[in-house]
Predict the structure.
Amino acid sequence: MRRIYLDHGATSFPKAPGVADAVASFLRNDAGNPGRGGHRLAVAASRAIEDARESVAELLGGHPERTLFGPGSTFWLNTLCAGLLGPGDTVVTSVLEHNSVMRPLRYLEAARGITIVTVRTANASGVPDPAEVRSVVSAARAKLVVMTHASNVTGAVFPIEDIADAVAPVPVAADGAQTAGSVPFDFASSGLAAYACSGHKGLLGPTGTGVLLLAPPLADELQPLVRGGTGSRSESEEMPVLLPDRLEAGTPNGAGIAGLGVAARWLLARGVSSIHQHESRLVAALAERLSSIPGAHVHGWDPGRPHTGILSFTVDGADTGELAAWLDRERGIMLRAGLHCAPAAHRWLGTFPSGTLRPGLSPFSTGADIEALAAAVEEFAARRRST
Amino acid sequence: MTKPRDLIIVFGTVQRVMRAESQARKRGLDVDVIPAPRSVSSECGFVIEARSEDASRWSGLLQELELTPQSVFRHTGGGWVPGSLETGPRPSNRPRQRGR
Ligand SMILES: Cc1ncc(COP(=O)(O)O)c(C=O)c1O
């Protein structure tokens, strides 16, 4: 049975060509502790990390000094929320957020008394218009907007640059977990104050890697979530002021970052806009094909809006977990069923608590992959109807 | 070239050191990254080791990269002496001054 991996929304597989070799090569040849000690392996590890930083910064439009490495989107979204919101502050967010935004915000609501205001847009997709965000932000006198760049449930892309423009000078921190590497984006011209993303999804790097891009003045203000050794200013018991050190305490994931650097170079050569075109074309075809199957429903799909390579669907009378398990066991197709760590999004879509099935495509997905999925769903739905 | 490198450029972070090194290499400058010698204080432990004959090219490169060194040292009289990229050895370790 051919194995078809369609869970790129969770993490990409396969990784970009050369990533696994770069990880192995780092571990074999360069695995000193970067910035700690002056011997040649410490220098080699530092070089590998800084090379990767340059590549990732170039890909996403970050300044290398303000392109930070960490374990994932979750870590950086926690850093942003905890570092920027204090007692009495109001934050504005969307109805489609992942729990890596909602859980830190709910925690801060309870622990620090922040106020969370959600933009309940008039759009069925849940994606707010910039003007809607602006009016909520000014009515709430918000200190910060934290918003996803694309829903990890429906794939709908937010007009995040226009939102940043509409609410300026209130800073916007975007969750780029689902867009980095798959939707054309340039941080430098985006107007965003911060952009957090995972290295292991659309960036096609190893798990355990994530990136934060910062713009001034937020870059000068943001305080770390985690404090500790940086290799620099070791005589001081305070964190260094300079970036990236201020926000990168502890030994970094050198092997993962080396792999991420190679992935970024591959993406630069391949071109994110060509990847976006490829995935958009395939996911639109999949949406159309699934919608034509009696009993199958695609949720939150708006053909007039840009999408990532993700969509959500259900089949009447079918438990999402059962269907996902059948697809995996009987047809070799891997995708994720359930709530995708985004209960708020499913409440908005009316698919809470049973959730949806979520295929996620990659640059390596093919028309044959989506046809195999559609044919299998068609077969399952037909059987359901006849029982 | 057998003459040892005789110019040290100090930055506050490893990121800056490595960025300076890789950009200098791309421009064909002879450079290495070494642990800071005893007499040179560096917040991040690493420094750029380069050649004094390239000082003005370094100065141009660092301006282009918007990287301001924390300090510069030249090897003179058997030791590392505070200096700058523009001039020869200087008596004190003052911040670099431009546009003289
Ligand atoms: C929209 C969104 N935000 C944040 C995350 C968290 O990313 P990570 O697990 O890499 O921290 C994910 C991943 O599932 C996501 O889809």
User: Anything to note?
Assistant: The CA atoms of residues 6 and 365 of chain A lie 8 Å apart.
